[in-house]
Amino acid sequence: MKYIKVLGSGCANCKTTVNMIKETADRLGVPIKLEKVEDIQSIVSYGIMSTPGVVIDNVIVHAGGIPSQADIEQWLQNSQ
């Protein structure tokens, strides 16, 4: 199981990122635990200055803007 956090204030890009990750995981059959982190202090603690940020298994894989579908698929399929 992959543990994924989407870091962001709740903006449209953050919501889109959450939905894209959920839909891709479902389509690929990859079990995930998805958490939305909106607390500014928590976001800053990761060193993210531009949201949305994506953290998978405690590794920052993305910051700023909506990630591409190809990136999400790669993150989910990597080290299943």
Strand fraction band? 25-35%
What would CATH call the class?
Answer: Alpha Beta
Annotated CATH topology: Glutaredoxin
Widest beta sheet: strand line-up? 2-1-3-4
For the sheet with most strands, the description reads: 4 strands, mixed
CATH superfamily: Glutaredoxin
Kindly report the average pLDDT value. 94
**Helix content range of the residues, please?**
40-55%
- Helix vs. strand class: alpha+beta
Structure description:
Strands 2-1-3-4 form a 4-stranded mixed β-sheet. α1 (12-28) packs across α3. It has helices at residues 12-28, 40-45, 69-77, and strands spanning 2-7, 32-37, 53-56, 59-63. The longest helix is centred in the N-terminal third of the chain and has 17 residues, at 12-28. By secondary structure, it is α+β, with helices and mostly antiparallel strands. It is 40% helix and 26% strand. The radius of gyration is 11 Å and the shape is globular. The protein has one domain (2-77): Glutaredoxin, CATH 3.40.30.10. The N and C termini lie close together (8 Å).
Pick out its properties.
80 residues, alpha+beta, Glutaredoxin, 4 strands
In short:
The chain has about 80 residues and is of the alpha+beta class. The protein is built from three helices and four strands; from the N terminus they run βαβαββα.
